[in-house]
Amino acid sequence: MILAERPPLLVPALAILAAALRLWMLVATGSTAEDFLITLRCAENLAAGRGFAYNPGEPVLGTTTPLYAVFLAAAAALGLDPVAVGKGACILADSASVWLVWRLARAAGLPGAGLVAGALLAVSPPGITWAVSGMETALVTAASLAALVLRAEGRLPGMAAALAVLVLLRIDGLLLAAVLFAHCAWRRERLGIALAVFLVPTALWAAYAAWQFGSPVPASAVAKMTVYSWMARQRFPNLAPFAAQMART
Fold first, then answer.
1. How confident is the model over 16-24, as a mean pLDDT?
2. How are the residues of the chain apportioned to helix, strand and coil, as percentages rounded to the nearest 5?
3. What's the mean pLDDT in 206-222?
4. pLDDT band for position 3 (cuts 50, 70, 90)
């Protein structure tokens, strides 16, 4: 059975390579993305008891990744360096993504393709850059891949848990959640437990955010949609050619 196969030694080797490259880049450059500093400030204020806000006393959801902010706040509250903890978590997440890519390909019956994809992910320059920047990109990628893998393996409660983590990391994860749950419904699979696993944490957060900030949608997301609205006609410029190409294959 495909799902019962153990990963070849090349999979953990690629995961270790991914971590080593990112750690080397972190030590060599000390790179930090400015957007990470927004989340970091929210986390430090929360850890210090000044509230979940960028500016204490102003109930505005300034970070696009509330779960990551809470994670960093927990690290700070424990006396750890939230920057090091956050970047370390992102590096580990990218290593896990190498393994998850292989598992996804294995579930599709293409473990060899999974090795190639894992190798490409391990050495991807953008992946390395974002993993050491402190941004939540690697965490979002890992959560997305975990949801896809668990869906492919038929583990719906696990898929729902991964999707809940994804949505709490980034609200736009709702798009993937909608697609996967719609696919399950189309296949007429039982979703009772999975929906509960997904809805309980996300609904609780949405209720808290609506009460505390007025909306669960981050203010930064609204600001970016406003600032970049002039680019609306230029979004996804390659979508039509890509769809046409896929239709021919």
1. 97
2. 75, 0, 25
3. 88
4. very low
State which residues form the domain around 93.
2-248
Q: Which of 72, 22, 66 is nearest to 44 (CA)?
A: 72
pTM over 0.85? The answer is: yes
What CA–CA distances, in Å, run from 246 to 239, 241, 242, 243, 249? 10, 9, 6, 5, 5
pLDDT at 248: 75
Instruction: Spell out the residues 6+ positions from residue 156 whose beta carbon is closer than 8 angstroms to its own.
Output: 150, 184, 189, 190, 191, 193, 194
Residue from 77, 78, 96, 98 nearest 88 by CA = 96
Distance CA 59, CA 54 (A): 9
Quote the number of domains for the chain: 1
Write down the mean pLDDT value for the chain.
91
Residue 210 CA to its chain's centroid (Å): 22
In contact, 104 and 114? CB cutoff 8 Å: yes
Q: Which amino acid is at 66?
A: P
Place of tokens 């270790």: 16
Mean pLDDT along residues 106-129: 94
Q: Which of 105, 104, 119, 103 is nearest to 21 (CA)?
A: 119
Is 135:90 a contact under the CB 8 Å cutoff?
yes
Tokens of 172: 């736009």
Q: pLDDT at position 220, please?
A: 76
